[in-house]
């Protein structure tokens, strides 16, 4: 089941259509299909989670979006412009999974360096740097050398450099990898702050609890193919089951409650609500992508 509609009917931040990427490996040039006929849309202004087990094709898809790889087939557009063109990527900020930063620079110097590389005009440079530091909560530590930063602080300064040129699309590849829950929560606040400012965020993460709490929609990939895409509500709701919310049970014994279905109408209890139960995103992954099921 795939949900690729565009919110509000506007131009999507990312539009991928029948995307395929093959690699030639080994002396014989055996074809390895890393991405297999993937189509999806990321709506402008949303937080979108790109998920999947290792080797699912997530990183390859991100590299095609960023213009690092050319697709074998299919198209990828950023705000309506083919991602292969430099113009499409001028409005994109990116934090890779394992960034390397010059440790001898201060946080402010690092953000300034990347802001200048990204073409921020000199007259706007100071304001852009301070805005990026404020959004990521790094203002107080901005004058410390990067080599003194904790893992969480490194990730947040990494997010700051990604947004220093005020891009409308921000792509974060595993921004919470290797950091503690407090640091992960700080990154989550950064992402929500970016959304409030109208930015689109694509989040690739294995921290499923955070994905579940902040993402508007997600896409799940496995073995290069798109397995499911949509809202978490549509993906995680167990439509074959129902929760009953019942009032008027003050005088019911344990035996009555055990046989609630039989006695409900007879005792005059009022059925307040019928809803479908949801599983957690983590349970969804374990049930669908456990190692025992993979061949």
Structure description:
The protein is α/β, with parallel strands linked by helices and 295 residues long. Helices cover 33% and strands 26% of the residues. The strands form three sheets. It has a six-stranded mixed β-sheet with strand order 6-7-8-3-9-10, sandwiched between helices. Helix 4 packs antiparallel against helix 5 and helix 5 packs parallel to helix 6. Mean pLDDT is 87; it is low at 1-9.
How is this structure best summarized?
With 295 residues, the protein is of the alpha/beta class. The chain is 33% helix and 26% strand. The chain has helices at 58-65, 86-89, 107-117, 122-135, 151-163, 181-196, 208-214, 232-236, 254-258, 260-263, 281-289, and strands spanning 14-25, 30-42, 47-51, 73-78, 81-82, 92-95, 169-173, 200-204, 217-222, 225-231, 243-247, 270-275.
Identify low-pLDDT runs: 1-9
Anisotropy-based shape: globular
Instruction: State the total count of DSSP E strands.
Output: 12
The amount of beta strand, in percent, is 25-35%
Order of helices and strands: EEEHEEHEHHHEHEHEEHEHHEH
* Mean pLDDT level: 87
Separation of termini? 23 Å
Q: Please work out how many helical segments DSSP would assign.
A: 11
CA radius of gyration is 23 Å
Biggest sheet architecture: 6 strands, mixed
- What is the helix content? 25-40%
How would you summarize the topology of this molecule?
Layout: E1 14-25, E2 30-42, E3 47-51, H1 58-65, E4 73-78, E5 81-82, H2 86-89, E6 92-95, H3 107-117, H4 122-135, H5 151-163, E7 169-173, H6 181-196, E8 200-204, H7 208-214, E9 217-222, E10 225-231, H8 232-236, E11 243-247, H9 254-258, H10 260-263, E12 270-275, H11 281-289
Parallel strand pairs: 3-8, 3-9, 6-7, 7-8
Antiparallel strand pairs: 1-2, 1-4, 4-5, 9-10, 11-12
Helix pairs in contact: 3-4, 3-5, 4-5, 5-6
């Amino acid at each position: 089941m795939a949900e690729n509609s565009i919110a509000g009917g506007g131009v999507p931040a990312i539009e991928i259509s029948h995307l395929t990427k093959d690699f030639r490996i080994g002396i014989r040039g055996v074809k390895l299909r890393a991405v297999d006929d993937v189509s999806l849309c990321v709506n402008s202004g949303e937080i979108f989670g790109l998920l999947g087990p290792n080797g699912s094709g997530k990183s390859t898809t991100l590299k095609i979006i960023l213009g690092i790889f050319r697709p074998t087939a299919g198209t990828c557009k950023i705000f309506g412009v083919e991602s292969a063109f430099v113009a499409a990527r001028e409005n994109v900020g990116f934090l890779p999974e394992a960034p390397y930063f010059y440790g001898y620079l201060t946080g402010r110097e690092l953000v300034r360096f990347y802001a200048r590389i990204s073409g921020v005009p000199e007259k706007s440079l100071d304001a852009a740097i301070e805005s990026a530091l404020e959004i990521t909560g790094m203002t107080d530590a901005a004058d410390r050398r990067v080599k003194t930063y904790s893992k969480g602080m490194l990730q947040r300064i990494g997010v700051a450099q990604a947004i220093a040129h005020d891009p409308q699309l921000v792509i974060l590849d595993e921004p919470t990898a290797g950091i503690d829950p407090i640091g992960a929560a700080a990154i989550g606040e950064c992402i929500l702050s970016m959304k409030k400012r109208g930015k689109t965020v694509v989040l690739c993460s294995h921290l499923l609890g955070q994905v579940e709490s902040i993402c508007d929609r997600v896409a799940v990939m496995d073995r290069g193919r798109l397995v499911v895409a949509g809202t978490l509500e549509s993906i995680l709701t167990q439509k074959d089951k129902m929760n009953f919310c019942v009032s008027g049970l003050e005088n019911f014994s344990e035996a009555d409650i055990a046989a609630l279905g039989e006695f409900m109408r007879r005792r005059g209890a009022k059925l307040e609500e019928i809803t479908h139960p949801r599983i957690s995103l983590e349970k969804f992954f374990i049930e669908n992508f456990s190692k025992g099921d993979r061949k």
